[in-house]
Amino acid sequence: MQSEAFSELFPLFNAANPETVDWLLSVADEHEYPPNRAVLMEDAWGNAVYFLVSGWVKVRRLSGEDAVTLAILGRGDFFGEMAILDESPRSSDAIAISQVTLLSVSAQRFIQTLFKDVQLHHRMLQLMVRRLRQTNVRFQLRNRPPAIKLAKTLVSLGENYGEVTDRGTRIYNLDPKDLANVSDISPEDSQKLLGKLVSKHWIEIDEADESLYLLNLKQLAHLAGHMG
Q: Which residue intervals define the domain Cyclic nucleotide-binding in the entry (predicted)?
């Protein structure tokens, strides 16, 4: 992957020195995974940082035989960066939802990269703070109606990872249970609300294409904004 395309795909590197990006790509390894394959096992956190070039990944919390989806990540996002600073054991994994292409950079080399480029270091801190704020927003939503929580999730996925098409903003057609987990609602509410949004023509689900189209992002954002 060319450094210019990499910087454009990953907002983390928008302000990075081009030489830094070139060096990072020179030490990165590329991986491809089919759907439902573990891309990061619970004992591998802290070994590397992973950059999602294409596809969709879910991060799960494991508890015995149960697994709860904590986050859905799409093209242009990255994960594993916090674990390189935290040596405590992990009880989570990352699973490919669709066909996935990743670039990985070892923890040692990624830390070297941060030390080499002050702008990149600053940008990393900004994005980590933004993730903490997103967690805070989810906490604020805990007592809100399920419809608002689900709308917030769909809008976030569309804005962060969506592909603008003639049919609307395309995201992956996620399993209702995964949507329920990340929205903090029940699977039953997730299934029911998705049906209502389809009937309102706010979304369209194309199972053959494995796609969910956000047809009326403005109305979804309006619904998601009813937090007062």
A: 12-131
